[in-house]
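> call design_seq(struct)
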């Protein structure tokens, strides 16, 4: 069975974009892969976090993974910071990476844009190498992710290939798996931008744990166009295309089926149906989440997870250290 690895940062609250671009894929793939899903808490500290809030978000993220449908029997769920081998390997990989390739990472360019070098944290610059370590330490075959992380998985491939070339076959070369529909859910108020939990205008994003009726209002007030035809056209109708993408991923209907379903309908009717399926999703997730968050399940799952992954990571780091000549 091939191995799958992916994770989400516990920064901010999870959005519908995280669910559609990422968690939905984990759930679809969990039966067919040996699935390792982690909480990327070390990646959260590239920006400042209140320690108490970070701790709470870590627990919330695990509860959300489970509430969304990750089966603890099918998945190994663990906390990145509990496995020190990720950072141990990351240093070695940093020594086998180039400033030129990190300079090309578009996420770094976006996040540092307009800021003075004196105030940009080094972690923001080097975290793609830690991400490479997270992936190749387990010889992951596939990494399901939204489109925004594709470039980082490609970097992981390059670093792994370079290491194998220098020191002999050591790492598997991972493949990114990007959803065909829903690779980038857009902001509801600005549908040319990614829906993101760090966006300033809360009307643009939907949080998985927000009041479903507030989410309904956000869908109803999503920016559209004046044509009043439900048709997929990303360039000319980005708002409607985004809502169609959300509807398509949550109902498994194709764009052609959706266009037929709403032919002759106004946008109000279409938005109401999109809002209905989003409200249903949030209600189901939140009911399960409320049961899980106050139980021992989160700790049980994380304990099992770390016990399973530690020996795998330890063996890989020992192999790497030996190959590069470290130790006695
Ligand atoms: P992050 O929130 O940056 O830790 O991202 C976690 C996962 O969610 C990654 O696989 C991202 O590609 C995915 N993701 C985040 N935002 C979106 C979005 N708006 N649409 C689709 N996927 C997303």
């Amino acid at each position: 069975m091939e191995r799958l690895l992916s994770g989400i940062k516990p920064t901010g609250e999870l959005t519908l974009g995280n669910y559609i671009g990422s968690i939905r894929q984990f759930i679809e793939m969990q039966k067919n892969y040996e699935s390792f899903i982690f909480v990327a808490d070390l990646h959260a500290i590239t920006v400042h976090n209140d320690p108490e809030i970070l701790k709470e978000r870590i627990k919330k993220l695990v509860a959300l993974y489970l509430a969304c449908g990750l089966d603890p029997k099918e998945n190994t769920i663990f906390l990145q910071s509990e496995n020190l081998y990720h950072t141990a390997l990351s240093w070695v990989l940093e020594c086998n990476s180039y400033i030129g390739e990190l300079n090309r990472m578009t996420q770094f360019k976006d996040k540092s844009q307009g800021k003075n070098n004196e105030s940009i944290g080094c972690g923001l610059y080097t975290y793609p190498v830690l991400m490479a370590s997270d992936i190749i330490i387990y010889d992951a075959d596939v990494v399901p992710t939204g489109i925004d992380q594709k470039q980082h998985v490609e970097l992981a491939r390059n670093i792994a290939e370079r290491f194998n070339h220098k020191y002999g076959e050591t790492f598997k070369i991972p493949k990114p798996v990007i959803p065909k529909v829903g690779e980038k859910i857009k902001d509801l108020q600005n549908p040319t931008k990614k829906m993101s939990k760090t966006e300033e205008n809360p009307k643009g994003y939907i949080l998985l744990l927000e009041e479903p009726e507030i989410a309904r209002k956000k869908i109803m007030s999503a920016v559209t166009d004046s044509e009043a035809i439900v048709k997929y056209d990303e360039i000319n109708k980005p708002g409607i295309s985004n809502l169609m993408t959300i509807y398509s991923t949550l109902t498994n209907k194709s764009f052609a089926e959706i266009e037929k379903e709403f032919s002759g309908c106004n946008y109000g009717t279409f938005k109401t149906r999109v809002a209905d399926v989003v409200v249903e999703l949030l209600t189901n997730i939140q009911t399960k989440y409320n049961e899980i968050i106050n139980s021992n399940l989160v700790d049980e799952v994380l304990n099992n997870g770390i016990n399973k992954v530690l020996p795998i990571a330890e063996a890989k780091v020992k192999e790497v250290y030996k190959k590069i000549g470290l130790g006695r």
